[in-house]
Every structure is written in C-alpha cells, then in structure tokens.
Amino acid sequence: MTDVESLLRPGANGTRQVFFAGKGGVGKTTLACLTAVHAARLGYRTLLVTTDPAAHTGSVLGSIVTEQVAPVDGVPGLSAAKIDQKQATEEYKKKILDDARSKFGEDTIQTMAEELASPCTEEMAAFQRFVDLSDMGGFDVTVFDTAPTGHTLRLLELPLDWGEQIRLKAGASDGLSEGDLRQEARFDHVIAAMRDPALTTFSFVMYPESTPILEAYRASQELAAIGVATQLVVANLLIAEEQATTPFFQKRRQMQLGYLEDMRRRFPDTALLPVPMMDSDVRGIDKLDMIDKIVFRGVDSHFKRNTRLG
Q: What is the pLDDT of residue 125?
C-alpha cells in the first residue's frame, strides 16, 4: 500500500476524514471527487461533502449533488452531499434563538441576534452541518471538499471559539443547558478526531507555483498551531515529460520541477501526491477512473520517475 493509500484507510475506530484545502482554483474539488471515487473503489463506504459555494462537485461526478446525502450513480458505496451555507446559516440561527427565547429576556435575545449576524456565523453553521453529516454513521471514509484557504481556516478554528457564543448564552443563566453540553461534547469529539492523524488526513492541493505553495505553507503552520497536522500535499497540473514537446512547455516543466523541490523543503515529512495535467476537463466517473489509474495506482510510473517523485 502506498503512503497516500494508507492515509485513506479508516482508523482504529473504523472511520477516517480526509480534508482537501488550498487556494481557490487549484483543483480541490476534482481531487476530492477523485479521492472519494478511489476510496469507494477500494470497498470503503464513502461520503463526499463540499462546503465550497463555488464547488462543481456534481459536474465532476456527472451526478446531481444536493443538501441531502444520496448515492452517486456508477460508484457503489459512494454518496455525496453539499452544504448550502445560506440554508445552514438560517437554520443555525433559528435553532439558537428559538432555544434562547425559552430561557432569556428580549434584551439578551437582541444581543444574541446581533452576535449571530457576524461574518463568522455562516462558517460556524457550515461546520455544524458537517458535524451532523459526520455523526450520521454508516460511512468508513468522509472526504471533505473545503472552501478556499482563508475560509477553511476560519471553519476549523471556529469550533475552538465556539465557547464564546455559548458563554454568551450562559451569561444570563446559571449555566449551560443539556443541549449546549451535548453540542460542546460533539464539537470536542470532532476537534479531537481532526487532531488525530490516525483518524484524519488533512491535505493541501496546489499547483507548482510560488503563490499557492506559500499560501498552503502558511496555512499549514496555522493549522499546526491548533494541533492539526498536514499529512498530504497534492501537486496538481504537473507537465509530464512526454507533454513537454515545445520549448515553452519544456521551460514550464523545468520551472515546475524547481517548485516541487520547494514543496519538499516546506513539507519535508509530508506525503506528496503528483497529479499530471489533463488534456480536457475532468467530467464523469469514466474520466475519474482513468485518472485514478494514473494518480493512485502507479500506472504512469514513467511520469513519476522522470519528475523524481517515485
């Protein structure tokens, strides 16, 4: 089993979460879809979830993806769902305020409503929905396609700050409600799992250029500060030797090889997955299965050998 495949294997508790993050436009959704299909082909019951409002998961899979978990045609064992942040936010705010109205006066409710109007609430609601999906059971692997890096960091840091909102609720009473305590326990469980490399694989997708590499590196340092290790980096859109048939592409390939060395220096103890540039958009299960053979199953060893990644 390759290093990458071991990072997809369910942990001791029988589950694994795989997060894909990175700068906008680097191919996170495609890599998340590819990984989810690969995990399902390995026999794992797999759930693919996206919180990126710009994600085109359904287009890549060739299947309609909605807020409801549903099987993906053509891949036994694979299901998918998207998180509608607007809908999740409205449901999240309504649930908190409805619960508060049975306990607090109107002044407190007004203060809470103002707090919930903050920009953080939408990401918090998305995380809440993810917790709901990850807690539903029945899956061995959950692949998480995230929004661009800055949003992802807020998404992962918000549960650590969740106590601030809860303390606001508790401030006007004698303590936390049973529901709050249950929620706190669920969040603590999710954060603990995210910090456990045996249960969670956190990965960054980037193409071999300075800006996405630097952004991913800085984000990985921020994650490390909250106890989340980066275990996988994906080098996307690599030019294979056989593709470098003109002076322009030959020069670009040499530049990419230099940036790959930079990725190795910045992520020295992290598995690196090379993904070649495709000659067309990735659309449909057949295309994903074809890329699977190249990326995960080592069919294109010539590409890996010549980029000195194998």
A: 79
Q: Is residue 160 part of a domain?
A: no
pLDDT digits (tens, 9 = 90+) for 253-265: 999 999 999 999 9
Please check whether residue 285 lies inside any domain of the structure.
yes
The per-residue pLDDT for range 79-133, each reduced to its tens digit, is 999 988 888 888 888 888 888 888 788 888 888 888 888 766 776 777 778 778 8
Q: Indicate whether 207 belongs to any domain.
A: yes
Which residues make beta-bridge pairs with 105? none
Number of independent structural domains in the chain: 1
Residue range(s) defining the domain that contains residue 31: 3-83+122-149+185-304
Task: Determine the pLDDT at residue 297.
Answer: 67
Q: Is residue 90 part of a domain?
A: no
